[in-house]
Specification:
Blueprint: E1 3-8, H1 12-23, E2 28-34, H2 40-47, E3 51-55, H3 63-73, E4 79-84, H4 90-98, E5 102-105, H5 110-122, H6 130-138, H7 142-151, H8 155-165, H9 170-177, H10 181-195, H11 200-209
Helix pairs in contact: 3-4, 6-11, 8-10, 8-11, 9-10, 10-11
Length: 216
């Protein structure tokens, strides 16, 4: 089945550009558009997109609050892909902490845009570049370190978390660890459960904020 995408940006030209790029792909359809985060929840409920490509800065409701609203009020919510101008923007990091699955630069090439949508839709790897890793490390705290200690990850679970932080997919981790993908999935599930993380992005944020994984 095709990946369904909702575009949310207050700039019509940005929406038009994203639509043109995505609709040129046989496996992606644009289900709808919105000019502000305030319209996202009702549109998600009616259109049931797989991915929401959402601008982080909008006049009425920004991408951070819109992300929180979707994840808090929609059953089986879509993946949120934050679309932004600046990769080291603290708004981007706040959106990731709020539950966004990754982010995309507005100046990205068409192939990168398509790859990002497919990646977050699949949900088994991350869009978490160096600039965001550095931001995550800056938010480190004793509380984050204590939470990581309480999680009591096994040696293999810690290895899986480090590979997740490098953006590896389940298949890539399986190849690196010389195990089956189902084994990797089990380890990933265990890591998320022990950290109390909603998804991989939240687990990787915890890894950087606790100092368990260093940026770079």
């Amino acid at each position: 089945m095709a990946i369904s995408v909702l575009l949310v940006d207050d700039e019509p030209l940005v929406r038009a550009g994203l639509r043109a790029v995505l609709e040129a792909q046989p496996d992606i359809v644009v289900a709808g558009e919105a000019a502000d985060g305030a319209a996202v929840v009702p549109l998600v409920r009616s259109l049931r997109p797989d991915v929401v490509a959402m601008d982080v800065r909008m006049p009425l409701l920004d991408g951070i609050e819109a992300t929180r609203a979707v994840l808090a009020s929609v059953e089986r919510p879509p993946k949120i892909l934050v679309v932004t101008t600046f990769e080291n923007d603290e708004y981007v990091y706040a959106a990731l902490r709020a539950g966004a699955a990754g982010f995309l630069l507005k100046r990205a090439r068409p192939a990168e845009i398509v790859h990002a949508v497919r990646l977050v839709a699949e949900g088994d790897s991350l869009l978490f570049p160096a600039a965001v890793r550095a931001l995550a490390a800056e938010y480190g705290s004793g509380e984050a370190r204590a939470a990581m200690v309480r999680a009591a990850l096994t040696e293999r679970e810690g290895e899986v978390l480090r590979l997740m932080a490098r953006g590896m997919s389940n298949a890539e981790m399986a190849e690196r660890l010389i195990v089956g993908t189902e084994t990797v999935k089990s380890h990933v599930s265990a890591v998320l459960a022990k950290l109390g993380a909603r998804d991989r992005t939240q687990a990787v944020i915890a890894a950087y904020e606790s100092g368990f994984v260093a940026p770079g």
